[in-house]
Design goal:
alpha/beta; Rossmann fold; disordered N terminus
């Protein structure tokens, strides 16, 4: 584990830099990632770790904005999922690095709290954009990844959307529109399917986003997937 804290946050009035942790299976991999990211003046690398426990310790010590984590760490395969799940309990947002596009890994990444996924053969420019987007509270997911999530939702039931107290959050029409979005339908097709104007569909989605505390269709799909994952987990625990 290396603490790479260096230059303090910009106090000259310029936008504050995004503070990030980097984690990969090898120290060389960490250094390569960190070196590439330091080329962006708006990103500050505050630490680097190859092991899950070191990553979590550094996260607690440095309180970064974003953690860029390889799916596989020094301690074993898929430990990136464990890291993402633990960081979900903190204010740090996770971006998981996948070696290739695998449907199940994409699904599990978002289900375990990742706010974005990045593929190792993509450009570092794309990674920097992903970091900045996630820092702003957005979800970083391309068309391929969203299609994986939609396929996963299509294979599940459509339960009522409830809060932790078991209270239903959306009315029937709102849920109807939500699940059509989850099928990948654009507003125009939803309006035809439900015999509503496109403007009305947009208004429904605006209210849905407001009620669920999200801001985009991608976030909605990930929200549904996460809720479905929690429900399945509760059912297994009760079994």
């Amino acid at each position: 584990m290396k603490n790479l804290s260096g230059t303090p946050n910009n106090q000259s009035g310029a936008p504050e830099r995004v503070r990030i942790l980097v984690s990969d299976a090898t120290l060389l991999g960490c250094e390569l990632l960190a070196s590439a990211l330091r080329k962006d003046d708006h990103i500050q690398v505050v630490g680097c770790a190859t092991k899950l426990n070191d990553l979590l310790s550094l996260n607690a010590a440095t309180a970064p904005d974003v953690a860029v984590i390889s799916m596989n760490l020094e301690g074993g395969a898929l430990q990136g999922l464990d890291a993402s799940r633990e960081l979900r309990k903190t204010s740090t947002r996770a971006v998981l690095i996948l070696d290739r596009l695998e449907r199940e890994l994409v699904i599990e990444a978002f289900r375990n709290g990742a706010k974005g996924v990045f593929f190792r053969n993509d450009s570092f420019l794309a990674l920097r954009k992903a970091i900045r987007s996630v820092h702003l509270g957005q979800v970083w997911a391309g068309t391929r990844e969203v299609e994986c999530l939609i396929e996963a939702l299509a294979a599940t039931a459509q339960p009522r959307i409830k809060n932790a107290m078991g209270e239903v959050l959306l009315n029937r029409r709102e849920e109807e529109i939500v699940w059509l979005v989850a099928e990948g339908l654009p507003n125009r097709e939803i309006s035809v399917r439900l015999n509503l104007s496109e403007h009305t569909v947009k208004n429904y989605l605006f209210h849905v986003f407001d009620k669920l505390g999200i801001s985009s269709r991608s976030e909605l799909i990930i929200y549904l997937l996460h809720r479905r994952g929690m429900k399945n987990g509760n059912e297994k625990s009760a079994a």
